[in-house]
Amino acid sequence: MTRFLLVFAAFIAALPLPVPAQAQVIIAHRGASGDRPEHTLAAYELAIEQGADYIEPDLVPTKDGVLVARHENEISDTTDVADHPEFADRRTTKTIDGVEVTGWFTEDFTLAELKTLRAKERLPAIRPANTAYDGQFQIPTLAEIIALARAKEAATGRLVGLYPEIKHGSYFDALGLAPVDALLATLKGAGYTADDPVYIQSFEPTALTQVMFRGREMGVDYRRVQLLSEEGGPADAPQLSYAQFLSDPGLAQIARYASAIGVEATLLVAADGTTTDLAARAKAAGLDVHAWTARAENAFLPAPLQSGADPAANGNFATLWALLGRAGADAIFTDNVAEAIAARAALRN
């Protein structure tokens, strides 16, 4: 074992220390996507049944302006669109947020056309069990996801939070599809108020300021979350880097239009297992801290938390959860809701 692993192992061994209670909020990342193909009603329903506090749909618009849940607007990895000869001529190359992408895009399909497609597992090598569900589920609309959440609330008496992400907001604005307007109209039309468990997230500050100002004009002031990663910067402000946002002045600026930051887990827990000061600095600026994404499989875990050599096998998820809580995360995105429920329970005992 290398010195690094020895240090990390010693750190983990000392884990039975108090973990902040706020670290217990569970956000089902694209639904229970460790157990069902992501962004399907089946994934969201299972996540709710497993006990998630929030369900998270990534939202992109159709050609006719309807918001649907997909990881990206390019859908060849998440649907069977390539098997539909009637759509062969829709395959094209576009530049999305400065990156050239080839495939099929939601904005080139009406909702009726998208409904003829079926979802498939995006990570078949890591989640082969999920491929058993390939071809079974449609692409859901935001309205359908809300209807599911409302039905589950009525059946269980438990609130189901919504945590939608606006994907590529400036790109879609340039196409005249206005995803922020569509999102706000859908949420308000479904009866959601600022007092309900709703967070709206985006990597683009423009989208979040649109949510703030347009929402207030509509009489709804939903909570907003600025997403940040370890590298790069927002597509709508290429002159800025996420590192600038993560500085103390940057965090103070975020606090003017958002109530929380959603950060890559590596920004909270360093490679050697030690925690950073980001959460403390963010909270000093008045921001909550949400972390993404806790996944159970070895492929997504740091080496000391892996179990064996199989990337698809589960590693030490509970320790990852505890580390993020100790680092100051108020909420954690996860693909593995059942495992998160167990980890939360273990920390409370």
TrEMBL record:
It catalyses: a sn-glycero-3-phosphodiester + H2O = an alcohol + sn-glycerol 3-phosphate + H(+). Keywords: Glycerol metabolism, Hydrolase, Signal. PROSITE patterns: GP_PDE. Residues 24-344 form the GP-PDE domain. It comes from Blastomonas marina. It is an enzyme of class 3 (hydrolase). Belongs to the glycerophosphoryl diester phosphodiesterase family. Residues 1-23 form the signal peptide. It holds the Pfam family GDPD. Its EC number is 3.1.4.46. This is glycerophosphodiester phosphodiesterase.
